């Protein structure tokens, strides 16, 4: 397929490379000049604007930080809404607010452009391997048209419902991941403080009920003091804010989410916003002097 790909950061770059590997033609754009380099090396064509990357394409994919960036790239000045051909399918794979997906989709519908929201889970390693979990919202018949392309980047794609349902599903994912990281940070700092080697605690409990993909991926980083992102704390706060707003919209409080978001915000104040979300352990290290 002729694909336009916009946003070649930690996730977008390997996702685009997997599309190229599968034989798709990609025109690409990122606001940071350097971000396009590797994908160009893999056969992509670099463009000077998002609009140029989207023009004449059958499918346009965005992988951007949050709702404001997606809105700006699609509907802003020189946005891709005016550049995409009628009949082009737009798939936003960023994690954004479900309400923003609906607003963007409604604006595009008037131009005969269908939109899906298809955020992903699995982080950089699974983006590289092409084994992401993809959660999709939008019209089922539109999803059926691009499912095969999405599966060049993921090992599973689940159709979750109407536009916005992909991002609502992703918010559930982000709550579980954030609370799981917080639980690991709290538990492993306690074991250290109480005099038991956290490496041994990890070996002892990871195969039991407490074990999780999050524990396996993030606790070794905590114990090694490795905070290279991965998934940045700034971006996780964005997701938790979107979750709280979505909860507000349906009249539901999210007390655990609010608590972990506050802890992450404290870390941003301490200069860790660009670090991996596993750096949440530093909140406890500061508290205990460990
Ligand atoms: P990132 O910050 O590494 O990448 C975002 C890219 O978008 C950057 O290269 C940036 O230059 C580009 N960009 C920003 N504004 C732009 C604009 N106006 N026009 C063109 N390019 C622009 O972030 P990431 O980790 O790749 O995450 C991207 C999305 O995927 C986010 O919504 C994030 O929540 C989600 N996500 C990330 C992970 C992860 O582990 N990193 C996992 C799942 C989902």
Automatic annotation (TrEMBL):
The keyword Flavoprotein does not apply. Belongs to the HIBADH-related family. It comes from the Bacteria. Keywords: NAD, Oxidoreductase. The keyword Oxidoreductase applies. It is an enzyme of class 1 (oxidoreductase). This is 2-hydroxy-3-oxopropionate reductase. GO terms for biological process: glyoxylate metabolic process. It comes from Eisenbergiella massiliensis. Transmembrane segments: none annotated. Residues 2-161 form the 6-phosphogluconate dehydrogenase NADP-binding domain. GO terms for molecular function: 2-hydroxy-3-oxopropionate reductase activity; NAD binding; NADP binding. Its EC number is 1.1.1.60. Residues 164-284 form the 3-hydroxyisobutyrate dehydrogenase-like NAD-binding domain. The active site is at 170. InterPro entries: 6-PGluconate_DH-like_C_sf, 6PGD_dom2, 6PGDH_NADP-bd, HIBADH-like_NADP-bd, HIBADH-related, NAD(P)-bd_dom_sf, Tartro_sem_red. Pfam families: NAD_binding_11, NAD_binding_2.
């Amino acid at each position: 397929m002729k694909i336009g790909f916009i946003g070649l950061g930690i996730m977008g770059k390997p996702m685009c490379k997997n599309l190229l590997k599968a034989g798709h033609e990609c025109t690409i754009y990122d606001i940071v000049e350097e971000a396009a380099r590797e994908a160009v090396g893999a056969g992509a064509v670099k463009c000077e604007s998002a609009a140029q990357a989207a023009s004449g394409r059958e499918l346009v994919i965005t992988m951007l930080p949050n709702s404001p960036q997606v809105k700006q790239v699609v509907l802003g000045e020189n946005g891709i809404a005016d550049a995409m051909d009628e009949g082009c399918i737009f798939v936003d794979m960023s994690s954004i607010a479900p309400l923003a997906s609906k607003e963007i989709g409604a604006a595009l519908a008037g131009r005969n452009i269908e939109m899906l929201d298809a955020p992903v889970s699995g982080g950089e390693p699974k983006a590289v391997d092409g084994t992401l979990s993809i959660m999709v919202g939008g019209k089922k018949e539109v999803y059926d048209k691009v499912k095969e392309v999405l599966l060049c980047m993921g090992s599973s794609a689940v159709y979750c419902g109407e536009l916005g349902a992909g991002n609502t599903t992703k918010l559930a994912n982000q709550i579980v991941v954030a609370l799981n990281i917080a639980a690991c940070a709290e538990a492993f700092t306690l074991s250290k403080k109480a005099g038991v080697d956290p490496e041994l605690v990890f070996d002892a409990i990871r195969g039991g009920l407490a074990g999780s993909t999050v524990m396996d991926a993030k606790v070794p980083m905590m114990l090694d003091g490795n905070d290279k992102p991965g998934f940045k704390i700034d971006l996780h706060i964005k997701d938790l804010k979107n979750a709280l707003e979505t909860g507000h919209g349906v009249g539901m409080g999210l007390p655990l989410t609010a608590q972990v978001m506050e802890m992450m915000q404290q870390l941003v104040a301490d200069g860790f916003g660009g670090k991996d979300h596993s750096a949440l352990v530093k909140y406890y290290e500061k508290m205990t002097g460990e």
